[in-house]
User: Fold these one by one.
Assistant:
Number 1:
Amino acid sequence: LPVTIQTSSNATTWTNQTAISAQNIICMTYGNSTFAAGLSNGALYTSTNATAWTSRTSGSSDNINAITYGNNFVFIDNANNIRYSADAITWNTGSTASASIISSNNRFTV
């Protein structure tokens, strides 16, 4: 079943939004006024409001295991490949790393 995204303006009352896809959402981040969601098989979606989502080409066919934002969007896939993007629309190939990624002070740790 698709994962339902819920939004709230007060963290008390939540509203169900339309599911992004029939695939499960594996990870999600927010940065640069954009939500980015990583799914299985390299599927990646973006939204500026968490209600209307646009499918993007990630350049990966593997599950997107982790995604973060810190001056750029960065994700790591199931094959441990890193991809990065300034806008979460056009993705560039990085290097190979471990299976998780975090950002702090515009620096990434894998």
Number 2:
Amino acid sequence: LSPAAATKTLAHELAQIRQHADDHLSDSRDIREVEAESVAYMVCEALGLASAEFSIGYVAGWASGDVNLVKTTATWVVKTAHAITTEAAAGLEAILALETDAADPLGALK
């Protein structure tokens, strides 16, 4: 997988984990897949990664073309995508801080 495809797949899987953690499991696999891939699409867009070519077809397929099904998932999708991107940004900031500290270990003493 390319790094962009791997990131999209990771975001999809994180969304599915959150479905369990949030006790937000639908009995319908169609809904679960629409939600998870919609989250993945939004996360990728926020990171500047193109995933529309795959994600839109995937969502449309699981939704069987039902736009209302996609609309009913929007609140959870937006909330979850925001949480994942916020956590990813915090994680990247922590990594960058560690790299900065490692590059200049005496910086704090100056």
Number 3:
Amino acid sequence: KRPWLCAVISPSQLFLSEKLSKYDQQTKLEKIVKRINNSLSQPEKIRKFIIANEAFTVANKMLTPTLKIRRNEIFKNYEKQIDKLLSELTTKVKKPTGRINKDCILLRVL
């Protein structure tokens, strides 16, 4: 367990259809995450996030047929990016408490 949360955000087809640049997508999602974080306690707040390259679907094996998130599949596909996020966060925190593991929030933007 560590003192921060990161997220892999899966944009919806509607969000992707807006044809925003990567920078504009990042900015828009930062505003959404900031608004959500305002209503959360400190341990629940998302510090950093990754925008998934594609929506999580059954076809790309990111979701089960009952629309549950397949964490292992997502971590396999985004392992390098998650590791980079965690290393960025670790360098900002003097000494992280606890073991750094692959716990990460997986969000689907509707």
Number 4:
Amino acid sequence: TEYLKQEIIEKGLARGADLTDFDLRGADLRGVDFSDAEFIDANLEGADLRGCNLRGAMFNGAWVTKADFRGADLRGAYFAGNFHFKGARFEGADLRGADFSEADLSGAKF
């Protein structure tokens, strides 16, 4: 997965990618197009996702502790499962239609 992680960062395009179980802790992913991507059980702890297109992305069971989603497009994103949002930042993100049902948002900043 390290090679694919590097490809995602370098090319800046991961539309519709299956990133299930990926370890993206601390990755600088600013501005990447992750629309319709699947982050099922992925680890995004401390990842920088500012300005990313995350429209329709699936975050089932993902760890987003201290992840930075400021200014990201999260329209229609689906957050379900046992989430860890402590310290995650969502200021200025477009959250229209995002589904946070069953998510523990304690400690997240909006």
